[in-house]
Amino acid sequence: MGKISSRSDEKSRSDRKFEKKVHFYELVRSTVAQKTISKEKQKSKRSQRRKLKAYDLSSLSEYLPELKDPSKPRPAEFKLNSKTRNKLVLKEGNQLKTVINHPVFQSDPLAAIYQHLQNTQPASDEKPKRKDSKTGKPKSKRKKSKAPAQQSMEI
């Protein structure tokens, strides 16, 4: 009586070796594919960086004149809580008192307000020309054609 193999119904040794080899080649193929994909991504990132470098104008900033820094940096966001509201009310109240007590305002209030607006508001140069809604071109004034002179009825 011979020894009974536990793998008698399974594949032969050469088949198992072949499957193992195929599995190894699949792993190698997948890692190579992943590597090529990562290399392509790196290449595209490199080219993007080069393009951004080409459009980088920061090196020209040394030739530009320096801007004056504002003396008071404005807060990023103006929050109106009760404390700031009270400060604002006091400030505006004092401003109102000084305006009312000003001699120019007392003599002619409307002229003083008008003068203040002229000094503070930006001047609007001209009214924009009206455009035709269909064509988008400025409307031209059409000349009225003269009516034919009255013809005499005498023949």
What does this structure look like?
This is Ribosome biogenesis protein slx9-like. Residues 115-155 are annotated as: Disordered. Residues 124-135 have a biased composition (Basic and acidic residues). By secondary structure, the protein is mainly alpha-helical. Among the domains are: 14-57; 82-120. It has helices at residues 13-54, 82-101, 103-107, 109-120. The chain is elongated, with a radius of gyration of 44 Å. The model has no long low-confidence stretch (mean pLDDT 80).
Tell me the number of strands: 0
Query: Which spans of ≥5 residues are poorly predicted at pLDDT below 50?
Result: none
Strand content: under 5%
In terms of quaternary structure, the protein is single chain
Measured between the Cα atoms of the first and last residue, the distance is: 150 Å
Radius of gyration: 44 Å
Envelope shape: elongated
Mean pLDDT: 80
Helix run count: 4
Order of helices and strands: HHHH
Main structural class: mainly alpha
Which range best describes the helical content: under 10%, 10-25%, 25-40%, 40-55%, 55-70% or over 70%?
40-55%
How would a textbook summarize the main sheet?
Answer: none
Keywords: Nucleus
Protein name: Ribosome biogenesis protein slx9-like
Family: Belongs to the SLX9 family.
Organism: Buddleja alternifolia
